[in-house]
Amino acid sequence: MKQETSTLEIDDPFSNTLPAYTLVNLRINGQTHKLRLQPWVSLLDAIREYIGLTGTKKGCDHGQCGACTVLVDGKRINSCLTLAIMKDGAEITTIEGLADGEANHPLQDAFIEHDAFQCGYCTPGQICSAVGMFNEGRAHTLEDVKELMSGNICRCGAYTNINAAIMEVKAKLENE
Amino acid sequence: MNNFSYNKVTEVAEAVADLTGHTNARFIAGGTNLLDLMKENVAKPDHLTDINKLALAGIEATEDGGLSLGALATNADTAWNELVEQKYPLLSQAILAGASPQLRNMATNGGNLFQRTRCYYFYDTATACNKREPGSGCSAINGINRIHAILGTSEHCIATHPSDMCVALAALNAKVNVTGPYGDRVIEFRDFHRLPGDTPHLDNNVQDGELVTSIDLPPSNFTQHFHYLKVRERQSYAFALVSVAAALELDGNVIKDIRLALGGVAHKPWRDRSCEEAFIGQEATEANFRALAEKILADAKGYGSNTFKIDLAKRAIVRAFSEALKNN
């Protein structure tokens, strides 16, 4: 990332007045993490670098690829475009929190079954996004799924199998 | 991203007061555009006032039969709100045409109004840009300008406004309620965003320290014949090359009222009421839609790579109204 050094050295009137750290309580996968964070730490960096849950991936870091998708209070968001400090107290679910003990989430099994990846880098985001989509209840057809999963890019182009995996789990959930 | 201080506020008055004492403080709600711009060093606030705890997320029917959209209601909650879907389906369509589901879950209605252009030169701090750095020049006018404006441009800036939601809000005659250090005021949607002129660094007419609290929609009869058409480089999750918000109120096949707003073609959602009025009382025919398209684009100007947008916009207008006619 480009840095204008003048910005940091000259236009930085608060370097002595800023609170260096703020105590932030992040609830991730049912566990509370008390972190001392600077305000500019993204939720994604807090999850990966401070808590060490590296399932959530950093792709573009600009909200364009969806690799960083997590669920906040049941809704899917891009964790790269929110600050950790803004999510103090919220219930956050990452890919590590989807399994039920040793039992995979049905989407995790379906992704394996359908070979819904090549490199796998987008997979945690794809799965969290699909869980969020199911929560929204707006996807009825394959066309809906394609449109409502468009925030998750797969550079390997495994979309056909990703869609098949999602459609299979969707059908199972609806028959339950 | 530069360093900044941060404060989470719980009252509107507290939010407005929290900006004072900083040289470049900003409100943050969804943060989807602001944080992106901060990562690119295009936006460099010294303080962020987090307004997410303000009680501004409601969507409520108003006494006059309209609807009030809270500034902090998310785009997703707005598009999928029952009242919005029933009474303002054009707005639902437009919102759902924008961004991705994840971004719509974060982005707020208030924030959507303040989205900044996706002009590549505005985003690239190595290039000249009058919007980012007044007086530095415009790299787009003689550069790659495929995504740029064809209407209302100036020699200083040919950037477009990126929002889909705002195109529908323009068509629906929305009003924006703001509060600030000098009290409350209402801004008509057509007066909210600005043309670039010689001040392209100003996207809108909101003053420093003012906070959008809600967006009001007047009662609307555009529940039957409406269409939001978005033409883009790929089918989903891309900004508009051209978008069209089309709405008709018909008496038989005679146009009782008509609305046409364009996205992707100007520094603000583009509307021209005089063009619309010329077709009130006329038949809703393809020939008339074509005439309307010619009229609203009469002053359009291409800059090379974006000249195709003039024809594209005309065809998109005809297609959007044809689709609107199909709705029953």
UniProtKB/TrEMBL annotation, chain A:
Record-annotated 2Fe-2S ferredoxin-type domain positions: 22-98
Listed Gene3D superfamilies: 3.10.20.30, [2Fe-2S]-binding domain (1.10.150.120)
GO molecular function ontology, one term from the record: 2 iron, 2 sulfur cluster binding
Keywords, comma-separated and alphabetical: 2Fe-2S, Iron, Iron-sulfur, Metal-binding, Oxidoreductase
InterPro entries: 2Fe-2S-bd, 2Fe-2S-bd_dom_sf, 2Fe-2S_ferredoxin-like_sf, 2Fe-2S_ferredoxin-type, 2Fe2S_fd_BS, Aldehyde_Oxdr_Iron-Sulfur, Beta-grasp_dom_sf
Alphabetical list of CDD domains matching this protein: fer2
Alphabetized Pfam families for the sequence: Fer2, Fer2_2
Domain of life: Bacteria
Protein name from the UniProt record: 2Fe-2S iron-sulfur cluster binding domain-containing protein
Source species taxonomy: Bacteria, Pseudomonadati, Bacteroidota, Cytophagia, Cytophagales
UniProtKB/TrEMBL annotation, chain B:
FAD-binding PCMH-type domain residues: 1-222
GO molecular function, one term: FAD binding
Alphabetical UniProt keywords: FAD, Flavoprotein
Classification via SMART domains: CO_deh_flav_C (SM01092)
Signal peptide: none
InterPro entries referenced in this protein's UniProt entry, alphabetically: CO_DH_flav_C, CO_DH_flav_C_dom_sf, Diverse_Substr_Oxidored, FAD-bd_PCMH, FAD-bd_PCMH-like_sf, FAD-bd_PCMH_sub1, FAD-bd_PCMH_sub2, Mopterin_DH_FAD-bd
Domain of life: Bacteria
Entry protein name: Xanthine dehydrogenase family protein subunit M
Native source species: Dyadobacter sediminis
